[in-house]
Amino acid sequence: MQPMLPNLGGGSWYILNGVENSDIALDFLKTTFGENKELYNQLLDEKGIVGTYLPSQESDVYNKEIPFFGNQKIYQEIVSITKEIPNVNYGTYTYAFQDIVMAEIQKILQGEDIDAAMKSMQVQAEAQAR
């Protein structure tokens, strides 16, 4: 697979172990989102979705002037700016803490006391980091 721009956020694709036809799913992901420049360029041209797959950025779509942005070549600008963003070390526990926070926010949205949820987050985070 080709290199991609650094990215934190967006979507991810997973294939579960032991699932029937996982080889077909892997091949599908590899040949679409893993290496299909035409797909990325179609998504950009039709939906304005800027992907992180570097080889797709060699397309003329990136030079397209977009009327909404004063006819700027905005996709080219986005890619240029993205390349200047430094890598960040988010730390060992980032994703574990993110899961804890998201679970507690759901409880708050369902009516749980905010202070209780915050205390729960703290306890779980400290236990995770041991």
Task: Describe the structure in your own words.
This protein has 130 residues and is mostly helical. The protein has five helices and no strands. The longest helix has 16 residues, at 94-109. Mean pLDDT is 87; it is low at 1-6.
Low-confidence stretches: 1-6
Characterize the biggest β-sheet: none
In total, the number of strands is 0
* Class inferred from helices and paired strands: mainly alpha
Radius of gyration: 20 Å
Strand content: under 5%
Query: Mean pLDDT score, rounded?
Result: 87
| Helix proportion range | 40-55%
Secondary-structure element order, N to C: HHHHH
Figure out the total of helices: 5
Distance between the termini: 36 Å
Which of globular, elongated, flat, extended, rod-shaped describes the shape?
A: extended
Topology, please?
Elements: H1 22-31, H2 37-47, H3 74-82, H4 94-109, H5 114-128
In short:
This protein has five helices and no strands. It has 130 residues and is mostly helical.
Salient structural properties:
130 residues, 5 helices, 0% strand, extended, disordered N terminus
